[in-house]
Each structure stands twice: as C-alpha cells, then as structure tokens.
Amino acid sequence: xxxxxxxxxxxxxxxxxxxxxxxxxxxxxxxxxxxxxxxxxxxxxxxxxxxxxxxxxxxxxxxxxxxxxxxxxxxxxxxxxxxxxxxxxxxxxxxxxxxxxxxxxxxxxxxxxx
Length: 114
Hints:
The chain is mainly alpha-helical. The protein is built from six helices and two strands. The two termini are 15 Å apart.
C-alpha cells in the first residue's frame, strides 16, 4: 500500500511539473503513472552507471554536474514515455530540479502502523 501511494504521489508530482514548467506536457494521469514506472527503471538501472562514469566530473564540480545528469535522464524518460513530452534541455533541467526537490519528501512517507 505504501508503494502504491508513493507512485500515485510521484504521478501527481509529474503532472504538477507539467503544469508549472513551460515545455513539458503530459496527456493524463495514466501517462504520469507510466512515466513514474519508466523513471523508476532508469533510476534503478542506468543512473548508477552514469553516476559512476561521471564521478570525476562530479568531484571537480562539487556535485553540480549531477543536475545535468538528472536533466538528461529526465529527457531520456520522456523519449520512452508515450503522452509525455519535453521540448528542450532547460525545460527538462527545471523539471528534474523540481522532481529532485520533492523526491525526498515523498520518500519520507511511511504508513506503517506499530
């Protein structure tokens, strides 16, 4: 139940990002859920490899390069998600930035009752 709630919140966050950032469009809630699934797969399989390869550049830039990696991975997700479109790098950058800010808040949600 906890995971389903988090995926719904992430889908709502994706819809909010599409509403706030010009250049990002999404067709509906089901498309947003599909974006969340693809984003989860990308974060599980691709992000660790990209972070490892870019580690020296991240160290030199004190982690700022991670923002560019987030934007590029967000653009990659848009390529594989029907109903989700990002017009350019800057739209993806600011969308990924908003996603990065709200992700820890959603991840802290815990519905387990003791």
